[in-house]
Amino acid sequence: MNTISINRKPRSRLIALLGTLTTLLLATPLAAQTKAEEDASWRTGLEEDGVKFDLNYRSEDLAAISGADSKDLIHSGQIALITDFDMEKLVGWQGAKLRASLAYRDGDNINDESGVSALFGPQEIFGRGHYLRLTQFWLDQSLANGKVALRIGRLAPGEDFQATECSFNNLSFCANQAGNFVADYWYNWPISQWGVAAQVNLGGDKYVKAGAYQVNPRNLRGDFLVVLSPKGGTGVLTPFEFGWTPTSASGLIGEYKIGGWYSSADRKDVYYDIDGNPASVTGQPFGERSGAWGAFFSAVRQITRGDGTSPKSGLRAIVKGSIADVQTSRVDRTLVGTLVYTGPFKGRPADDIGLGIAFNHLNDRIARYRAESLALGEDSLLPGGTERTIEAYYSFQFGKHLMVRPDVQWIHSPGGIDQRDDVLIVGSRIVVSL
């Protein structure tokens, strides 16, 4: 009988064991901690003085029980320390806030280890290597009586543009989309880039925002200090966004964004060679394109108010989509829709139920290149089209410090290739926060 087994790589097995032991040791006392004990925490004084921090470990442990090459349980995780400094409280610097964060990722990628081969990885926490990284180091400055906000330093563009929540495991649903499929020049967490972003409030509930970030492949290296040097830049990423954040008379929250981006960094064409001919026919290297672009939208709407214990109580819907230029992008369009209900049952006000569906499209020019290569008798992946992913979860929140989220994913046509078997994945996300 086939059973789920734990990945037998020594490093993965050790990491999974340590993660499990940490969770077991911390879960019971943290879940049992009373509100009075939390309020009496020693860091309350620090927060009053202007220093607030969050130390957390996130573990995503998944197994592909059908349709993949392996049923091993694959662990991926991250420990992160985020510290916020209210500079007005600390030194009297009016309207200024500083953030510094460190992150370290561990574990393996089920997409590769189990042969899932999806366009978007089932474990959003995996990626960018096992290195300690300075993920954020930026200064926020409020100007003109709050009408203008300026952010400068080491930034991740996904924090500032098309930013949405990341409650699902599959990368299709998680946060900003551009950094998930044009990731060679748009770097999301845990990578940071030197940059600046400015937001101008247009009055009421509308704003416009723009940014400029250095595109530098050195940021992907694992050298903690070397990556901080601006040396090696290849271009500038310039995203922009218009936003509207209305609240209805009944208190229902809305958040609507539309925007786009341009990167001046050179990028490989996905079909034509250096002479402008089909690379599948000539066998020559792919040509260089000057620049790349894309556009996005997102819409978040609170549908019901729930019991009102938090701003997110009740049912909310998120719809978002992105497109990228077909000359250089492997994935040229995505469309995602999710429903999340917070506080689904009496006595469980912080629990969540989530359901999402995503459509990720493989660039037709890549499919054309593959089809031509196969017709010429060359080795190539099969042509592809749209990959479809459905994910559902239930999130148990135990106090402020422990969250356990069982999860199931179904991926149809992994990699956009219809000939591949559908993949069924089960697992969980566990977050311990201190």
Would you state the CATH class? Mainly Beta
Structural class: mainly beta
Radius of gyration: 23 Å
Poorly predicted regions: 10-14, 24-29
Distance, first to last CA: 41 Å
Percentage of β-strand residues: over 45%
Strand order of the largest sheet: 1-2-3-4-5-6-7-8-9-10-11-12-13-14-15-16
Query: Fraction of residues in helices?
Result: 10-25%
Please state the second-level CATH architecture.
Answer: Beta Barrel
Arithmetic mean of pLDDT = 88
Helix-strand string: HHHEEHEHEEHEEEEHEEEEHEEE
CATH superfamily heading: Carbohydrate-selective porin OprB
Gross geometry: globular
Describe this structure in words.
- Belongs to the OprB family.
- GO terms for molecular function: porin activity.
- One of its GO terms (biological process) is carbohydrate transport.
- Keywords: Signal.
- Residues 1-32 form the signal peptide.
- The chain is mainly beta and 434 residues long.
- It has a single domain (10-34, 50-433), classed as Carbohydrate-selective porin OprB (Porin, Beta Barrel), CATH 2.40.160.
- The protein contains 8 helices and 16 strands.
- Strands 1-2-3-4-5-6-7-8-9-10-11-12-13-14-15-16 form a 16-stranded antiparallel beta barrel.
- A hairpin with a 3-residue loop joins β14 (386-398) and β15.
- The two termini are 41 Å apart.
- The relative contact order is 0.13.
- The model is unreliable at 10-14 and 24-29 (pLDDT under 50).
